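Fold this sequence, please.
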Amino acid sequence: MTSSAVESFDYVIVGGGSAGALLAARLGEERGVSVCLLEAGPADKNIFIHIPAGFIKVIFDPKVTWGFETEPVPGIKDRKLPMLQGRVLGGSGSINGMVYTRGQAEDFDAWAAMGNPGWSYKEILPYFRKSEQRVDGGDDRYRGRSGGLKTLELNWPNALADSFLAAARQQGIPGNPDYNGARQEGVGRYQYTIENGKRCSAARAFLRDALRRKAVDLRTEAQVTSISFEGSKATGVKYRRAGSGTLSEVRARGEVILCAGAANTPKLLQISGLGPVDLLQRLGVPLVQALSGVGANLQDHYTPRFVFRARPGVVTINDYARGLPLAGQIFNWLVGRPSIIGIGVVLGFAYTKSRPELDRPDILITFTPGSFKAGFLGVLDDAPGMTCGVWQLRPESRGYVHARSADPMAAPIIQPKYLSAEADQQVVVTALKLARRIMSTPALARQCEKEIVPGTPMKTEADWLDFARSGGLSGYHICGTARMGPGSDGHSVVDSQLRVHGVQNLRVADASVMPVITSGNTNAATMMIAEKAADLILGRQAA
């Protein structure tokens, strides 16, 4: 392996995903600051990345995803699940379903209460608002109007989605016109990161202009292999370009910032000598800093789903997905009319409580007026149908990410331990029962021909739990593997300034730092972390 000349920048950012793309752009706004952004995947030139319905084409494309897989998970019958992560400029924000969900105010207040000053909802709300440009509706106290990230509500009319909203209200769930506003609880239509009918990723919203101004040196297909240290000071990183045997190095005069995601960030820390001592010994990696929390605390949303066949005459996404109807939808999209080509894949939501005495929602019911084979989002069924899924918003189960070996090209070991906590089992069963009740209300029952998945009656609690174990998939929201907290707790990886404990000039600014998963999709909160990180790094007053 040969090496090339060493270059220097003020800041070196590892990972060009939702966090890395935004953070690089913000740092590049500072006059006289040089930024190098390293992304392991290619540039976001695939046309299906930018077409919202292209989600189905890219989510399993090995050219733009890591293609990770979990270990066998005991709590779900030792099944291995895909653990999809974006491996392309824009990261998972370039391949996801584009849902924009911030989470609940109490999520962030809990982060602050865990010893992370500056991360309460009141303190981080300005960062959400700074990034966003809400183009329709919303309360200005909560929503941003001038940021680069365009967000809008579903604009494709569908009677079946309307029926879901009515059915949820029949089950006592109130309507909510803006779940990213004053409260999350309720039923309504999702909001998406879409601009003029095209996906609005962090790369599109923030980085594109920085690249035009040459404020950021972007290097794609550049996989970082290790963090360089002089003693306990991070000095840069080594990386390898795709198809090259040359190992290159870039040095950081200021800081190295990891934005590689909740699987790759802990792996990179571990193979660079930061992590649990026993793991590093097994890997044969020299110790730089003992940090037992690196790779621990993994959290994700686990999502069992019902699938139903629609009655003849009921209009679903499946009806428009092929032949002449698809051609008509493409035409509508091209001329700016509402179309299935320009929407996200999940349309309706219902945030609610598994028990009435709770002070905030802990479950989510999702609805798509379309069916997917075996409930697997991304593979449309041949026959028209509908899909109803459930999430536990804040699972208690905790897993881990470990480097498989010292080889930087080896995929990490990912063990999410879904449903290992008894409380999670109880909540997911309650959520499934509610979902089936919603689908059985008059508003929806008259439009359903039959239930396809699971398609069998569940008579006992054991039956319900068996379905939950058999039929769930990852929500692709892994986080928490380099959690934020005070060094005194013994399990945190970064402090409230996102600085890695015990070393200098190294930070983490991605979903890894979340102490507890947010109550919903994690992409919006990941971008918020990057917004705040820019102020922390540059020493600016908080937004």
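The domain at 1-123+197-299+482-543 is CATH 3.50.50.60 (FAD/NAD(P)-binding domain). The longest helix spans residues 422-440.
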